[in-house]
Structure formats: structure tokens, C-alpha cells
Amino acid sequence: MADESAVVDAPDAEEARPEQTVKVEDAGPALKRLTIELPESRIKGKIEDTYTNLSNDAVLPGFRKGRAPRRLLEKRFAESIQGDVKNQLLSESYHQALEDEGLDVIGEPDVKDIDELEVPESGSLTYTVEVEVTPDFELPKFDGIKVEKKTFDVTDADVDAEIEQYRERYGQMSAVEDATVAEGDYVQSDVKVLAGENAGDDAEVVHEHPAAYTLVHGEDKEFKGHVAGILVDDMGKQLAGKKVGDTVSISMTGPEGHENEGIKGQPITLVMALTHVHRLEPAAVEDLLPQFGMQTEDELKERVKTMLEQRNEQTQQADMHKQATEQIVEAVELDLPEGLKGRQIERTLQRQQMELLYSGKQPEEIEEELAEARTQGEAEAVRQLKTFFVLDKAAKELEVEVTENEINGRIAMMAMQQQRRPEKLRNEMRQRGELEQLYLSIREQKTLDKIIEQASVTEVEAKDGE
User: Fold this and answer.
1) pLDDT tens across 383-394, in order?
2) What processes in GO biological process is this protein linked to (predicted)?
3) Is the dihedral of CA 43, 44, 45, 51 positive or negative?
4) What is the pLDDT of residue 462?
5) Could you tell me the maximum CA-CA distance found in the chain, to the nearest angstrom?
6) CATH code, residues 172-281
7) What angle do CA 432, 434, 439 make, to 5 degrees?
8) How far apart are CA 187 and CA 180, in angstroms?
9) Which of 91, 89, 84 is nearest to 5 (CA)?
10) What is the pLDDT at residue 149?
């Protein structure tokens, strides 16, 4: 509601503490209920201050600026003055209560019955506000954490497989006329997500995605595939043998972690109208050389080996971070605010996308992993929330800071992997509100690095497939 925004902005000036009475109660997991009472003297003082400011600035017909009589100001501006006084009193008293009670707020305040609240002509004003706060818990000792450091060797086969991926990435995609869909094809379709199981044409359309691409996987990927951000377990089987002009309908339950409430956990029907079938012709190895600034295939292989070694270092670090995080989170007991769980799902997906980009994953791989993540739902959101609070507290205890240079360096690395200009990527991330997530990601990684410095680390050889 419009008035509620007044509670969010902190007072501009630091003044002597006005009188008020505050009662704090537990209202749920990491949720506090504040009952705030403002005495009549504070209310009248605020009303007088507001009328004084208005009197100094108001210009009314027949009166010079600052000369309009009080009764005329009250008659003309009484309603707006009441609203201004109410908003100011709520904002100032709420933020004063947070400071006085030492509450670390993580959500927006919920002022109860805010529309019915009125500034009384006499007597006190009492209101109730509920707000989510940081859970209170103790961290375990970091020197009790045990982590395995897995070592990786880059083989010639690894290099050849990576070059094969580059051949596909820089290959030519072409539409195949009158083709029958087969494994490895890219199917373009106009997708509608309908509400309900086995929904017909008259069903509600909860989402549309024209010209969506789906890579048709076979047995090696368990026939899984995604479209419009939704993972379908047997997508490869559903599409195999189809042709342009065919329509595929898939009845299923929407993933629990989907951002669209009409899809999340709901019975839906995916309708895919196939418009094109594309096949990839991999690029020749010699055509890759200019892309990497290389003269010979041996030079390319050496460059790719170096890149894989760097990627393995990132994988090694990420694995150690994961081990440490799991042990710390497992050792901590804390209650989470209910309201945060739903909001966390979208943040989790955004964060995971950014970390996948940093790891060098390709767009198709990223979309597959995000589609898989959407199936994990609330349980994963709860785990991510718990991890955030634990690592946030650890970062504060370990005095971890993130510099602007570190943020720019991470953006430059992501831009290089995507073959884009860093400044353009940064602007896009700013517009999408992703810079804060990037800051938190770097902060958590630095925090885990410091934790691992105190942990017991054992070096082991990575197993095949890891």
C-alpha cells in the first residue's frame, strides 16, 4: 500500500531521541512483532512542526508568502497534513525502534491495518508492525572441518573432447527441409503452457514462448530436455520421429522452483508447435585456429589444455567450498522466516546462472542446469537461505571485504568466456539487478577460502567422472 512506503525510508536528520514505548515479541521463525506507542506530546509536536514548515512556504491568494493564517491552512490542508504527519511518525518511530532494540532487519515491514491508522486529535497513537530479522545462531569451530582436495589431470582425450565441443560451438546450423527429428537436432517450436492436465485449446494460457529451441537428447542424457525453462524427463522420446508442422502435447506437473506461480507445482500441459528442425555441421579444426589466435593445431591443443587446467582449478575450489559449506550448514540450527522462502527461489536461480557463466559453461548447458534446478523447489530454497545466513555471519566474523576491482575482474572473466565486452556485460548486469548477487557470490567464495585455511585438508586423486 502507498502509505507503507513511508516506513521504509529512514529519517534524514539525527535528532534527540523522541519519546516512545516499544514492546517486542516473537511472531514466528525469525519474525518480530513490534508494538509502538507514541505519546500525545510527540504527535502534537510533529503537527506543529509540519504546520510551521507549511506556513513558511505556503502561498495563498491574498496573502504574502509565510503570512497565511493558521486557521486557513488547517481548513485547506488538514487532510494532507494528517497524512504527512502519520507517515513521518511511522517512519521515524519504526527506525528508532529498530536502532533502540538492535534488530537486524532483512525484510520489508508489515504495518498492521495501516489504512485504518489515523492521527488522533488527543491521546497516544499505537500501531503494530511485523518484520523479518536475521536468525540468531552460533557458528561451529572452523578447525573441525575436514575437506578433501581432489587433484585432476588433463589428458589428451580431455583436450580432444573439448576441441570437439568448440567445433560444435563454432559450427553452422542449418534448417533441414522435410526432416524427421533425430537425436542431436535442434527443434524450434512455438510453445504454450496451458493450465491443467491434458488441457485443450480452450484452457488458460499461463505462459507463451515463441520460437523456443530444444536440443534433442538421446539415451546418454536419459532423453531429458527442456523448453521454456521447464525440464521434461522424456523430451527426446516425445520429439523423436516428429516433423515440422506436428504438435506435441505433454501433460505434467510444473517444477516446484519455477518463477511463474501459474506453473509452479501446478498441473500443466506443454503444447509445442514444431516450426523448424535445425542440424549442426561442426566447424573444421583449421577454422578454429583464428578464433584462438593460433597458427597450428598443436598450438590450439596447448591453449585448450591450459584452459582446462584453469577450469579444473575452479572445479577443485568449488568442490572444496561445497564440502565446507555442507559441514558448516549441517552443524548449525536456525529457524528461517517463512516469507523469505518463496522470494529465495528466484534469487537462487539468478545466482546459479551467474556462477555457471563464471565456470565457463555454454548457454545450452546453463539452460539445462537451470531447468533441472527449477525442479528442486522449496527444499533447495531453504538450503540456500540457510547457507546465506551462515556464510554472511562467517564473513562478518572473518572481516571479509569485496573490492570494486574484484567485481570488475570477475565481470572481465565472465565477458572473456562469453566473448563479450566487459563494460557492456556490466551494464546489462546492472540493469537486471545482478551486481548485488555477484558481490555476494565473491564474498561467499572469499569467506570459504578463509574457512578452508583453518580446516583440515587432505589431498586425494579425483575419481573418473568427477
Assistant:
1) 888 898 999 999
2) 'de novo' cotranslational protein folding; cell division; protein transport; protein unfolding
3) positive
4) 81
5) 91
6) 3.10.50.30
7) 160
8) 10
9) 91
10) 95
SS3 assignment, position 146: strand
Alpha carbon of residue 341 to chain centroid: 12
Run of H or E including 378:
helix 377-397
**Rounded Cα gap, residues 307 and 292, in angstroms:** 12
Q: Give the architecture (CATH level 2) of 142-159+293-461.
A: Orthogonal Bundle (1.10)
Three cell numbers written together for 168:
560444435
SS3 128: strand
CA distance 137 to 336: 11
Residues of the chain with CATH 3.30.70.1050: 2-132
Residue pLDDT, tens place only, 237-276 = 999 999 999 999 999 999 887 878 899 889 999 999 999 9
Q: Are 426 and 411 in contact (CB under 8 A)?
A: yes
CATH superfamily for 2-132 is Trigger factor ribosome-binding domain (3.30.70.1050)
For residue 376, with 0-12 CB atoms within 10 Å meaning exposed, 13-18 middle and 19 or more buried, which class applies?
middle
DSSP line for 158-226 = HHHHHHHHHHHHTSEEEE-TTPPP-TT-EEEEEEEEEESTT--TTS-EEEEEEEEEEE---GGGTT-EE
Write the burial class of residue 293 (CB in 10 Å: 0-12 exposed, 13-18 middle, 19+ buried).
exposed
* Grid cell locating 71: 486557521
Instruction: Please list the residues that pair with 22 across neighbouring strands.
Output: 36
Start and end residues for every CATH 3.10.50.30 domain found in the chain: 172-281
Residue range(s) in the chain whose domain bears CATH number 1.10.3120: 142-159+293-461
Residue in the block written with cell 561445497? 322
The grid coordinates listed for 34 are: 513490534
Q: What is the DSSP string of 229-243?
A: TEEETTHHHHHTT--
The residues, any chain, with a CB within 8 Å of residue 440's CB and separated by 6 or more, are: 351, 388
Query: How high is the pLDDT of residue 28?
Result: 84
The reported pTM is: 0.66
